[in-house]
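Summary of Year 1 activities. Much of the first year was spent building the evaluation harness for sequence design. The harness presents a backbone, in tokenized form, and records the residue chosen at every position. We chose the following record to illustrate the format because it has been used consistently in internal testing since the harness was completed.
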């Protein structure tokens, strides 16, 4: 099994910045894609940003140019640097990783709240 633990959420004013971190632990031999999704209660969970092991990134159009995803495989950690935050970025942010234990599976963190408000 794989456990993902997120940190770095909180409250910030519009235009501000936050950095989210997510570290993977447990019994696995490889991780491919790591990234972030977000969900507002009552809405579908949506992709924010992902990064593969070769550094290929994928961003939601709504965050391009403002958010940057990165990863440190030695630390089994993925980051999301969020800048120029807008009220519509308010959401619960979930870390996601595709990892190989007995098979390839997708794992989720518990979520961290990000609130952008003046």
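For this record, the design step produced the sequence shown next.
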């Amino acid at each position: 099994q794989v456990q993902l633990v997120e940190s770095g959420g909180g409250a910030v004013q519009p235009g501000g910045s936050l950095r989210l971190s997510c570290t993977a632990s447990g019994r696995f031999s490889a991780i491919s894609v790591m990234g972030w999704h977000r969900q507002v209660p009552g809405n579908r969970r949506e992709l924010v940003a992902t990064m593969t092991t070769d550094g290929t990134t994928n961003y939601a159009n709504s965050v391009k140019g403002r958010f940057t995803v990165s990863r440190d495989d030695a630390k089994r950690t993925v980051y999301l640097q969020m800048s120029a935050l807008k009220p519509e970025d308010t959401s619960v942010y979930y870390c996601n990783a595709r990892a190989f234990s007995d098979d390839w599976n997708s794992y989720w963190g518990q979520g961290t709240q990000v609130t952008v408000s003046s």
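Residues 72 and 78 are 6 Å apart (CA to CA). Quantitative recovery figures across the full test set are reported in Table 2.
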